[in-house]
Amino acid sequence: MAAVVVDRSDIGVLFDALTADGYAVIGPTHRDDAIVLGEVTSPDDLPAGWTDSQDGGSYRLERRSDEALFGYSVGPHSPKRYLFPPRTALFDLDRSNGSLTFTQREVSTTKYAFIGLRACELAAIAIQDRVFTGSGVVDRTYAGTREDMLVVAVNCAVAGGTCFCESMGTGPRCEEGFDLVLTELIDGDGHRFVFESGSDEGDRLLEGLPSRPAGPRDIERVDETIAATSAAMGRALDTDGIQELLEENREHPRWNKVAQRCLACTNCTLVCPTCFCSTTEDVAALDGSGGTRSRRWDSCFTMEFSTLHGRSVRTTTRARYRQWMTHKLASWHDQFGSSGCVGCGRCITWCPVGIDITKEAALIRLERS
User: Fold this and answer.
1) Tens digits of per-residue pLDDT, 40-94?
2) DSSP code at position 215
3) CA gap 45, 197 in Å, rounded
4) Is 201 exposed, middle or buried (0-12, 13-18, 19+ CB in 10 A)?
5) How far apart are CA 38 and CA 25, in angstroms?
6) Residues 129-136: contacts with CB within 8 Å, 24+ apart?
7) Are 192 and 212 in contact (CB under 8 A)?
8) pLDDT tens per residue, range 101-126
């Protein structure tokens, strides 16, 4: 279906259509001095007129000079928290009747429609698809939510101070993985959105929106917006031969220097849209009548994560940081056929001491051991 233009005053029709179709609509909203993902019911819930200023270890919201709904980069939340929740109950154990009974928890049947996902986040979902459904064992929780998911993506009009998707080939233009993609335009011709479809469901939704065909000038403005975003990236990562670079420099002195700053706080892995480490946790009833086993997020930065036969195999922060970065940028290729990094920059922004993965890789390349 050809691109169409929807005026700002008509965008609420999309929210109404998604709600009528039974979707829980998840989108960006302004809460706790950040732009986070949450349930939204109308355009009024979106962060109109807000943008973000990001740098290493720094995130601040600022007012824009207009009322753009998507005039920011990415916040601390990613779709991962819905597809692969921070905590999931797996099964219950009951021994109240004198015997052991295991009852598997049902998979959530929530239908999610995501509004406002960026190209880097679509790339992250594609990576997690391979992790959770394409590597031999299908994760029930992930697959159950993913099956009914709908995506309204956004071509980025703002490059964050820590973004480097351009150098990772994952943005800022959305190429695939969406049902609808929009580009927000605000200029002398008004406040409007240029929509394109990426699926049959997207075609159906577009047919129900008040719209007009996009003209050559509208398409030109979309291209100009994306090109300007590409040129304004806050960071870049040289990926040429990076797998070999990291694998051949496991004893590089840079690992010691970064370990002196790293707090092993796990922030980088928790905000990362592709990290998938988890552990299981058992909670028993006080009277011994039963309990519940749950899966929760874990991190390769915790001492316990690499425990084998009662001992951790990565006892130092140096070893754990090296494992994270080398896996993300190098050995992930061997496991899943791509990098584990999509260039969203969250790990840089939300690191309390501002460790920058792009700078660490560059310094290793500059001072090869």
Assistant:
1) 999 999 999 999 999 999 999 999 999 999 999 999 999 999 999 999 999 999 9
2) P
3) 24
4) middle
5) 8
6) 130/336, 130/337, 130/338, 131/274, 131/276, 131/336, 132/83, 132/84, 132/276, 135/335, 135/336
7) no
8) 999 999 877 999 999 999 999 999 99
Q: What would you report as the CA-atom Rg of the chain, rounded to the nearest whole angstrom? A: 22
Q: What is the dihedral of CA 17, 155, 120, 110, to 10 degrees?
A: 0
pTM above 0.90, yes or no: yes
């406040």: which residue's tokens?
191
The distance of Cα 212 from the centroid of its chain, to the nearest Å, equals: 32
Which three-class secondary structure state does DSSP give residue 80? helix
The first and second tokens of residue 55, run together, are: 């740098």
The answer to whether the beta carbons of residues 157 and 213 sit under 8 Å apart is: no
**Whole-angstrom distance, CA of residue 97 vs CA of residue 323:** 47
Residue 54 · residue 354 · CB < 8 Å: no
Q: Which amino acid is at 65?
A: S
Query: Which helix (DSSP H) or strand (DSSP E) does residue 88 occupy?
Result: strand 87-94
> Positive or negative CA dihedral for 45, 183, 55, 85?
positive
**Quick one: which H or E segment has residue 141?**
helix 140-147
